[in-house]
Amino acid sequence: MAGYRTSRVSEDIKREIVAVIRELKDPRVKDKILTVVRVDVSSDLSFAKVYVSSMSGIEDAKEAVKGLKNATGLIRHEIGTKLRLRKTPELSFIADDSVEHGMDIFQKLQNSQKKDEENENNS
């Protein structure tokens, strides 16, 4: 039963963080195309790890994480207000390169498909 609650709270926190990130005015965050990949919440809901990725690479994600760490108080306040949790979890932001990795795989698949089509046309 507790697993359902943590996964539900995790998704709710993820949704609220995305909404708050859109409204931040910090240039380290505002000018980047960021994706919140996932949120891992501890079993007692007191800590949450937020994995953030950027479309333009891991360096931009690391820079955005610095801005998000500065705005942690605001983000926590907004989450607590919107979700009405008994205790709002402490947030730690972590740069992740999974979106960039996914784009690389996608490009490799497209290139492979083009080569296969060319080989079929040449045969």
Which topology does CATH recognise? GMP Synthetase, Chain A, domain 3
Task: Determine the strand fraction and express it as a percent band.
Answer: 15-25%
CATH superfamily descriptor: K homology (KH) domain
Main sheet: strands, sense, barrel: 3 strands, mixed
User: Portion of residues in helices?
Assistant: 55-70%
Q: How many DSSP helices? A: 5
Secondary-structure content class: alpha+beta
As for the number of domains, it is 1
CATH architectural name: 2-Layer Sandwich
Unreliable segments of 5+ consecutive residues: none
The SSE string, one letter per element, is HHEEHHEH
What's the short version?
This protein is an alpha+beta fold and 123 residues long. The protein has helices spanning 2-23, 27-30, 58-70, 72-83, 98-122; strands at residues 34-41, 47-54, 90-96.
List keywords for this structure.
single chain; 123 residues; alpha+beta; GMP Synthetase, Chain A, domain 3; three-stranded mixed sheet
Description:
The chain has 123 residues and is of the alpha+beta class. It has a single domain (2-97), classed as GMP Synthetase, Chain A, domain 3 (2-Layer Sandwich). Helices cover 62% and strands 19% of the residues. The chain is built from five helices and three strands, in the order ααββααβα. The chain has helices at residues 2-23, 27-30, 58-70, 72-83, 98-122; strands at 34-41, 47-54, 90-96. It has a three-stranded mixed beta sheet. A hairpin with a 5-residue loop joins strand 1 (34-41) and strand 2 (47-54). The longest helix is centred in the last third of the chain and has 25 residues, at 98-122. It is elongated. The protein starts with a helix and ends with a helix. The relative contact order is 0.16. The model has no long low-confidence stretch (mean pLDDT 87).
